[in-house]
Write a structure and sequence with these properties.
Elements lengths: L2 H27 L2 H22 L5 H22 L4 H13 L16 H9 L6 H11 L5 H8 L3 H18 L8 H23 L3 E2 L5 H17 L4 H14 L25 H14 L8 H14 L8 H14 L3 H15 L1 H10 L11 H12 L3 H14 L1 E2 H20 L1
Parallel strand pairs: 1-2
Organism: Massilia soli
Protein name: RNA polymerase sigma factor
Keywords: DNA-binding, Sigma factor, Transcription, Transcription regulation
């Protein structure tokens, strides 16, 4: 195996396992920033050793073991300055008893799950809402600062500063590494749901890399959502988010061809949609609608996904109902991205000209200036209106803005289709 291919393996393992490693170290050290630093040390060790020594049989366990050893070394060094030798030994043994089990035996219960504890630490009220989400995406989602910046439609520098300040604030406040008591959950659940949602979205449509989907991120987000729903059975929005993730996940097998090329929703083989996940999603959606309150933003998105899941064929889709649900979502959680999605729905319900009119109004939105889906949507609507020259330019612009290889290939292919129609005309 070449050095480059080894590095790709290491990067892949790190993306999948980094959150569990950081969670285990945070439970040992009670310091999220230090946990990430020592986990990164283990990653550096892999980058130095594996190209020459070969990839271990269990790469994740190797990283976890090295990271734990680094953490224990730190504890020993710290205790040497605080205790006698006998006290040091006792303290280390106590810490060892508290270490999470091996990586392959990760816990799924809500009280013993390091990932859930880490998420609540990242979403502590001592941090701003923006800082909570950015830090959790970094530690739990394994996203780079550039990927997080794209998720928030802001600059990489701003995100880097936000994460550094967040880790410092947690350390200074000595935030405990624990799931909060029941009476404190409600104050933090909104941020936790936002983080789970962002992690899931990054897995569903990766902002960068060679693959359009990162299923492991989706699975982890869904697992955490299910745990949270079991712990907070009366929180409608928790069930709403779980319903959304269950239904969206049902399409995973149909969203890409054997060669990894993306398949858009209206072109997917719906026989490949996972009916068990759809049924689970419908059940969660029923729990999300609390009497007298209706659905929240996540529940509304789940209801939209449910409309697609109920349609046996693309032409059976109830676009009028979806448009009404998007109108409600725009009132509850207004944002340029919601409006862009609404433009797509309006085009399906009332024709591409109606969608393009709204999409054109969004062209001046600062948040969407470098957002590749705006020119992608405009390109699609222009193509449907027979304005192929304009559509080709929009698809090419969208391709230049995305960092995802598969999405770029799809957009350039659509641009070429426009060019062929122009040539044929």
């Amino acid at each position: 195996m070449t050095k480059d291919s080894t590095h790709r393996v290491i990067e892949g393992v790190w993306r999948i396992e980094s959150a569990r490693i950081i969670g285990a170290l945070a439970r040992m050290l009670r310091d999220v920033g230090l946990a990430e630093e020592l986990a990164q040390d283990a990653l550096v060790g892999a980058l130095e050793r594996w190209p020459s020594a070969g990839i271990p049989d269990n790469p994740a366990a190797w990283l976890m073991a090295v990271a734990k050893n680094r953490a224990l070394d730190h504890l020993r060094h710290t205790r040497l300055h605080q205790s006698k030798e006998a006290e040091l030994t006792y303290a280390i043994e106590t810490q060892l008893q508290d270490v999470a089990p091996d990586i392959e035996a990760g816990l799924d219960d809500d009280l013993g799950d390091d990932m859930l504890r880490l998420m609540f630490v990242c979403c502590h009220p001592v941090l701003s809402t923006e800082a909570r989400a950015a830090l959790a995406l970094r530690l739990l989602g394994g996203l780079s600062t550039d990927e997080i910046a794209r998720a928030f439609l802001t600059s990489e520098t701003a995100i880097a500063q936000r994460i550094v300040r967040a880790k410092r604030s947690l350390s200074e406040a000595r935030v405990p590494f624990e799931v909060p008591a029941a009476d404190q959950l409600a104050a933090r659940v909104g941020s936790v749901l936002q983080v789970i949602y962002l992690i899931y979205n990054e897995g569903y449509s990766a902002s960068a890399g060679d693959d359009w989907q990162r299923p492991k991120l989706c699975e982890e987000a869904l697992r955490l959502g299910r745990i949270l729903a079991a712990r907070m059975p009366d929180e409608g929005e928790v069930h709403g988010l779980v319903a959304l993730m269950e239904i969206q996940s049902s399409r995973t097998r149909a969203r890409a061809g054997p060669d990894g090329v993306p398949i858009l929703l209206m072109d997917q083989d719906r026989a490949r949609w996972d009916q068990l996940l759809i049924r689970r999603g419908f059940a969660a959606l029923e729990r999300a609608a609390r009497p007298g309150e209706g659905l929240g933003p996540y529940g509304l998105q789940a209801a939209i996904a449910a409309c697609h899941a109920r349609a046996l064929r693309p032409e059976d889709t109830d676009w009028m109902r979806i448009a009404a649900l998007y109108d409600a979502l725009a009132q509850l959680a207004p944002s340029p991205v919601v409006e862009l999605n609404r433009a797509v729905v309006l085009s399906m319900a009332y024709g591409p000209a109606a969608g393009l009119e709204l999409a054109d109004q969004l062209a001046g939105e600062p948040q969407l200036r470098n957002y590749h889906l705006l020119p992608s949507v405009r390109g699609d609507l222009l193509a449907k209106l027979g304005r192929d020259a304009e559509a080709r330019a929009e698809f090419e612009r969208a391709a230049a803005l995305t960092n995802n290889l598969r999405e770029r290939e799809l957009l350039l292919a659509r641009a070429r289709d426009c060019g062929r129609r122009l040539g044929a005309g």
